[in-house]
Amino acid sequence: MVKKQFKAKIKYNKYTGKGLYIMDLETPGGIVSKPGQFISILIPNKTLRRPISILENTGTSLRLLYKIRGEGTKYLSMLTEGESIDFTGPFGNSFSLQKRNLLIGAGVGIAPVYYLKGMGINGGVNKGETKLIAGFKTKDEIPEDLLPSIDFISTDDGSYGVKGSIVDYTKSCIDKFKPDNICICGPVIVMKLISQIALEKNINCQVSMESMMGCSIGACRGCVIKINDNGIIKNASVCKEGTVFDARKVFYGGCKHA
Amino acid sequence: MPDMRVSKGKLQLKNPIMTASGTYGYNLEYEDFTDLTSLGAIVTKAITLNPREGNPWQRIIETDCGMVNSIGLENVGIEQFLKEKLPILIKRKIDFSVNIAGSTLDEYITLARKCEANNIKMIELNVSCPNVQHGCLEFGVDENTLGSLVKSVRSVFSGCLTIKLTPNVTSIENLGLACQEAGADAVSAINTLKGTGIKLTFENGKFKKEQVTGGYSGRGIKPAALSAVLRLSKVLSIPIIGIGGIYSLNDVFEFFAAGADAVQIGTANFTHPDIAGKIVSELYSFMGNNGFNTLDELKGALRNE
User: Fold this and answer.
1) Nearest CB partner across the interface for B74, out of A47, A212, A221
2) Which of B155, B163, B167 is nearest to B184 (CA)?
3) Residue A208 phi/psi, 5° resolution?
4) B249-258 and B275-289 helices cross at what angle (nearest 10)?
5) Would the ipTM clear 0.90, i.e. be above it?
C-alpha cells in the first residue's frame, strides 16, 4: 500500500489574475510526483473530487495552478492560509524529454509544462535543452510568479509578448528552435492544431489531456477518451493511462470541446 | 470480539460491507486506499461475454447529491477477466462477487457456466444497467423474463446467485419474488435510477451545455434505495443486499433497519476511496463498544426499536 491520500495545510492561496490562483500546500513528509500528474481534491458536499494539475513540487510543498471553472474551484479559491484540504494522488503518467524540447502551455495549461521545465533545470532529469513558451489571452492573465521560467510569451491581444495565437507563435518557434520533441498542455483545440503542425514536421509530440473524472484511479472508466493505437481506435483513461499521450494516438473526435 | 459474519443460506460474508459493481474496478484498483481483504466482498465491474468499448465521451456528470453515468459496460470481457483479473483476486485473498451482464439469455448462461467452471463462489446478475441498447435491463423489468433467466442461470451455477435489481419499475417486489422463486440466493437493490444531468454555463453571450443521460447514483438516491429494500424485505425470505447512497456507518444502519442483510458502497468510493475499509472498522468498533456480539443482534436492535 502506497500512501495516496493526504491532508495538507495551505501555506498560501493567491489570486494571480483573471480567475487564476496558485495554491501552495505543505507536504512536510514529501510527496513523489512527476510533471503531468495531478491530485484530486475533496470538495465538501460534492460527489466528485476535483483533479488539479501540479505546478511544482519543492519537496516540502506542492504548488497548484487552477482556474475558477465551477463550484469546486470556486470553493478552493476561497480557502485561506492555515486551512486544510484532503487530496488523493498524485495520479497519472508523465512526459518524456529528448534533446531539444519545446514546452507549450496555453492558459492554465501552463502548469504541467512549467513543472516539466523546472525538472529539466533542477532535477537533472533532462540533459537536453528546454524552451517553455506560454500563450495567454491577455497580460492580466499571466501568473507573475511563473515569468522567470517562461522563455517566450504570446498574448491574443498583444498586451504582453508577441501578439497573436499560441498556435501561430508555435510555428515560428519551431522554425527557430528546431525541437525534436514538443510537450503541450492547453485547450483541446490548441493541442490539436499544434500537434498537427508537429506531426507534419515529423516532430515527436506529447499532449496532456483533461476530462471529467470519477474515481481518478482508472476504476470507473468515466474519463476515457479515444486513442488510435496502430490503427485500432480504443479507450484510454485520462486519469491513469494519461494524462500525457503521444499526440499521434489521440483521436480528437472523442474528447472535450473537440 | 464481535462477530460481523453474514450467514444466510449461500450468502456467506465475513462482514456485511461490500463495494458496488462499476465503482471498484476488477481487483486491486483501490489497494492504495483500503485493505481490500478486510471487505465483505468487492463486486467486480460488469463482465460481458465479449470485451466492450462502452459509450462515447462524455460519460459522467456531477449533479446535486450525486452523479449521472453512462459508461455503457466498458469491460475486458470474460476471457480476459478469467485470465488476468481473477488470479489476482484469488492470490491476494480478496473476497469477491463477479457481476455478469448479457445481451441474450444464452450469454448469461455461458457467462455463468464459465464462472462455475472457474470455481467462482458468488455472482451478481446485472439485469439493471440503464446504459446499453440491448439486453441487461430488458431482463430486469419483467418478472416472467427475469424468472426464466434466473432459473436458467441457477441450473448451471451452484454458488451464491445474486440478482441486482433496477428501481426503474412499478413493482420491485414482484421482480424480487420472481428471483426468489427461480432459486436466487439473494437480491441486491438498487442499481442506478434513470437520470439526466445538465450543466449550463453562460459565457461570451452563449450558453454552453454539458449533458449526460444514464444512471443517477450517490447520496440523492438513498431514500429511493431504502424504500426498495423495505418493500422487498416485506415479501422476500432470501437476503437483501442494500445499495444506494451509503456514505457512513449510520447509512449502513439505516439499510439494516429497512431490512438489508448486507450493503454495497458505490459512488462514495469516488468521493472517499478509503471509505469501505473505514466503515468495516467503524462497524467492528461500534459493535464491540456497544455490546453487540453478532450482526443479527445489531439488526434486531435496529428493527425492533
Assistant:
1) A221
2) B163
3) -100, 115
4) 70
5) yes
Q: What is the distance between the alpha carbons of residues B268 and A82, in angstroms, rounded to a whole number? A: 27
- pLDDT band, very low/low/confident/very high, at B289 (cuts 50, 70, 90): very high
Please identify which residue in the block is written with the cell numbers 508555435: A170
Q: Between helices A188-200 and A166-177, what is the axis angle to 10°? A: 30
For position B129, what pLDDT does the model report? Answer: 72
Domain for residue B1, yes or no? no
Looking at the DSSP bridge assignments, the partners of residue A159 are none
Contact criterion met (CB < 8 Å) for B270 and A221 = no
Cα separation values, B222 from B168, B187, B248, Å = 14, 17, 12
Which run of H or of E encompasses B227? helix B222-235
Phi, psi of B143 (to 5 degrees): -65, -30
* A174 near B CB under 8 A: no
* B271 Cβ under 8 Å from any chain A Cβ: yes
Buried/exposed B16-35: b ≥16 CB within 10 Å, e otherwise:
bbbbbbbbbbbbebbbebbe
Question: CA-CA distance, A101 to A170, in Å (whole number)?
Answer: 13
Residue B143 forms part of a structural domain: yes
Distance CA B192, CA B179 (A): 19
* Burial readout A90-120 (b: 16 or more C-beta within 10 A, e: otherwise): bbbbbbbbbebbbbbbbbbbbbbbbbbbbbb
Q: What residues in chain A have per-residue pLDDT under 50?
A: 121-122, 257-258
* CATH code for the structural domain at A95-207: 3.40.50.80
For B32, the closest of A2, A212, A234 (CB atoms) is A2
Q: Is domain A5-91 in CATH 3.40.50.10470, yes or no?
A: no
